[in-house]
Design brief:
This protein has about 325 residues and is an alpha/beta fold. The protein folds into two domains: about 160 residues, 3-Layer(aba) Sandwich (D-Maltodextrin-Binding Protein, domain 2), CATH 3.40.190; about 100 residues, Periplasmic binding protein-like II (D-Maltodextrin-Binding Protein, domain 2), CATH 3.40.190. Helix content is about 45%, strand content about 20%. Helix 1 packs parallel to helix 9, helix 4 packs across helix 11 and helix 6 packs across helix 11. It starts with a helix and ends in a 5-residue tail after the last helix. About 40% of the residues are buried.
């Protein structure tokens, strides 16, 4: 039976509108059940701490539980493998260490996700940065003096990090390779042991997290010389960025990002972006994050996606130049 043209056009228009209406209705009802929050790292780590703080606030704000599921291992790849298999319906989100997310495809021979296509960017949960610090016995008060000291004594100095392929290691290698320094990397099994080694003088230089480095700097056990972000760190307001110190190529903003499986409804992504920004806005939350070595930052999904897109080739080049391989 051939339908009249007007009837056909009405039906076609209704069919086109229906998916949009259903997506809007889905977003309006979201969340109607608990939301799984995957953290691809162990409990108590930096990403986990931020995820738990925000998940609790989201639970309070949206009236449904946002529950944490830790899936640690392989530098975050195990958890990312779980996340990529989830339905794109907004009921699974994943908190990432943006450096690991961007670097792992180059660091490992095989990863369970495509960093460019398998996820939709949602929001930034918090930011931090790596800090270059030295043992007080090192006769350098500035980064310029440290670089001159290393160049005058090739092979004499080394630096510690939280382990191969970590943000601390990659930042250290960005520093070493971009300035062509003869500097040896000493990996440790975590940020705590790496900082302890620097305090003890076993490794005179340290690239470490803000949370681990700031107390040691304040106690005079380490001397912070520069921070890796584009802007100064609130917890170390007198310490310059590498750019301010004259080394603009050494930039490493450590972002805790939130992603969802690709093709998650845009209305839900928009809602989550708005709610995460609201969750970290209260002064008490910001103070808590600062005490943990983090700062709040807001970004649209598009801005986070653009940031991650730029990070992938950046860390691929560092890994290639430094010859880093996952252990």
């Amino acid at each position: 039976m051939k339908l009249p043209r007007r009837t056909f056009l009405h039906l076609a228009a209704a069919a086109a509108v229906a998916p949009a209406v259903s997506r809007i209705a889905l977003a309006q009802d979201y969340p109607s059940r608990p939301v799984r929050v995957i953290v691809p790292f162990a409990p108590g780590g930096q990403t986990d701490v931020v995820a738990r703080l925000i998940a609790q606030k989201l639970s309070d704000r949206l009236g449904k539980q946002f529950y944490i599921e830790n899936a640690a291992g392989a530098g975050g790849n195990i958890g990312m493998g779980r996340a990529v298999q989830a339905a794109p319906d907004g009921y699974t989100i994943v908190f990432i260490d943006a450096i690991a997310f961007a670097a792992n495809p180059s660091l490992y021979s095989k990863v369970p996700y495509d960093a460019a296509t398998d996820f939709d960017a949602v929001a930034i949960g918090a930011t931090t940065m790596q800090v270059l610090a030295v043992n007080p016995s090192v006769p350098a008060q500035t980064v310029q003096e440290l670089v001159a000291l290393i160049k005058a004594n090739p092979g004499r100095y080394n630096y510690g990090s939280a382990g191969v392929g970590t943000g601390a290691h990659l930042t250290g290698e960005l520093f070493r390779t971009s300035l062509k320094l003869d500097l040896v990397h000493v990996p440790y099994g975590g940020g705590g042991p790496a900082i302890a080694a620097a305090v003890a003088g076993h490794t005179p230089l340290s690239f470490g997290s803000a949370a681990a480095t700031i107390p040691q700097h304040q106690d005079g056990k380490l001397r912070a010389l520069a921070v890796g972000g584009k802007n100064r760190l609130k917890g170390l307001p007198s310490i310059p960025t590498f750019r301010e110190a004259g080394y603009p190529e050494v930039v490493c903003d450590a972002v805790v990002g939130v992603l969802a499986p690709a093709k998650t409804p845009k209305e839900i992504v928009t809602l989550l972006n708005r709610e995460i920004a609201a969750a970290v806005a209260p002064p008490d939350v910001q103070e808590r994050l600062v005490s943990l070595g983090f700062e709040t930052a807001t970004a649209t999904p598009q801005e986070l996606a653009a940031f991650l897109k730029a990070e992938i080739p950046k860390w691929a080049e560092v890994i290639r130049t430094a010859g880093i391989k996952a252990q």
